Amino acid sequence: MSRINHNISSLQAIHHLIANQNDLSLRLERLSSGLRINRGKDDPAGLIASENLRSEIRGINGAIENSERANNVISTAEGALNEVSALLLEIRGLVTTSANTGALADEELQANQLQVDSILESIDRISNTTQFNGKKLLDGSLQYTLSSVDTGDLSEVRLYGAKVPDGGTLPVVVEVTNSAEFAQVKFSGAGTSANNVVSIRVAGNTGSEVFSFAASTAVSAMAATINGFTDVLGVSATVSGTGALYFNSTTYGSDSFVTVTSIGTDDFDTHAAGGSNSTSTTDYGVDASVMINGQAATVSGLEATLRNNSLDAELVLSPTFGTTLGTTTFGVTGGGATFQLAPSVTTQGQVSLGINSVSTGTLGNNDVGYLSSLRTGGSDALVDGQAISAQKIVDRAIKQVSVMRGRLGAFQKNTVETNVNSLQVALENVTASESAIRDTDFAEETAKMTRAQILVQATTTILRMANTTPQNALALLGG
After folding, report:
1. What domain range includes position 253?
2. Predicted pLDDT of residue 309
3. Which residue of 15, 120, 237, 328 lies most exposed, with the fewest beta carbons within 10 A?
4. DSSP codes of every residue in 168-233
């Protein structure tokens, strides 16, 4: 048959040519854009999955940037604390030197005091000026805000981390379940015998000393003599109402001890609580047992530490509270520096860190005093001969700063750096998944483009042939 009104072969060739041209156009688009999915119709389900993965990638990248920024903040603070630590060590050397009053002229002592004053000014300057991106770091603005702290129960409260509810208060309940005790050795006699001179060796945490008491020395006189060496020994003496002489350590806890040894005589028998008489007796103190929000704290003497996901705290109990069974409560109402370290903005993805002030008015505590008291005119100034109390304050300040540096270093190493490492691994995997869904496979697309080019050329040739076929009807007319 030969018809000319409708060229079916041509229509079929056109249809295939259009399809092949569209296929070629698709391959060219994918090769030129590098994406397998350029619009929703390319792969609706794949597009949804790809967009979700892209959202996750953006979140991971943001979390990595946040972690790196947090690391920079902590590095800035830690660098300043390093300088404060060096200055405190300088003060400690000056305190030790100033205690050598027998070899120092008044002018030298005043010069040492002048150095201390200058160092204290430098510490306050560092505290007030250390900043990152305009945010002060060591002036106390990043420490937690506390409410209802009973200073009669807690001599010192330092928080390094807390998860405070939005607009709420995190209650902190501190319960002493077992009292702290100092080391104690007891001499039950009414005094030395009428015939013998008694010699004893008394040792404590800070030193030891030998005492000789004449015959018939009363226990009250013994106590007065021993108390004159309290700073040397770390031991004090008291006389009970029954006339017994007690040797007590000046600090609480299992690290504290008292040893009393009779030298060359047996008429000075001592014993620990509940023990039998002996010519040499040693007793150790007992750490308090403390529960913080229902969890057992790590305790050394009167210092309790708790670290978990919701609270990182270091508390110093007052002697009154730490030696009795009881409970005290305070609240954390806000404050701290919050870092968003996870891709999703949730409470679990945020880490809060408290950075306490390192000014001279905050380093130290109520028990030993504060660093600012070492200034000229202060209660612990070196020119006033207060080297012993000054050293206690400086030692406490050094410990506080070193603990802060350790906590910040642990945050950098164990939280920030590990978080960056895990996020980078997650970023690699999520990006690989998104790439597998959305990116062009060039080997595959090149092969398909070659096929599409050949088909376009072939269908173009076929269309030309189809268009010439109706002309065969002229041959019939010509016959």
Report:
1. 182-284
2. 84
3. 15
4. S-EEEEEEEEE--BEEEEEE-SSB--SS--EEEEEE-SS-EEEEEE-TT-BHHHHHHHHHTTHHHH
Q: Is 205 inside any structural domain?
A: yes
With 0-12 CB in 10 A as exposed, 13-18 as middle and 19+ as buried, what is 333?
middle
- The whole-angstrom separation of Cα 445 and Cα 441 is 6
**Using CA atoms, how far apart are residues 336 and 312, in angstroms rounded to an integer?**
12
Q: Is 6 within the bounds of a domain?
A: no
Q: How many domains does the chain have?
A: 1
- 295 within 8 A of 132, measured Cβ to Cβ: no
In the chain, which residues have pLDDT < 50? none
Token code pair at residue 152: 């009669």
Distance (Å, rounded) from C-alpha 253 to C-alpha 255? 5
Instruction: Give 449's strand partners.
Output: none
Tokens of 84: 């404060």
What is residue 478's predicted lDDT score, i.e. its pLDDT?
65
Q: In what order do the strands lie in the sheet with 144-147?
A: 144-147, 326-335, 170-178, 289-292, 295-296
Helix residue ranges per DSSP H, 325-468: 387-410, 418-438, 442-468
Instruction: Report pLDDT digits (tens) over 373-386.
Output: 999 999 999 998 88
The answer to whether position 165 is within a domain reads no
Residue 171 included in any domain: no
The whole-number pLDDT of residue 298 equals: 94
pLDDT in the model for residue 479: 53
Helix axes 44-98, 387-410, angle to 10 degrees: 160
Q: What is the value of pTM for the model shown?
A: 0.78
Q: Which residues contact 114 (CB under 8 A, 6 or more apart)?
A: 376
Q: What is the DSSP letter of 407?
A: H
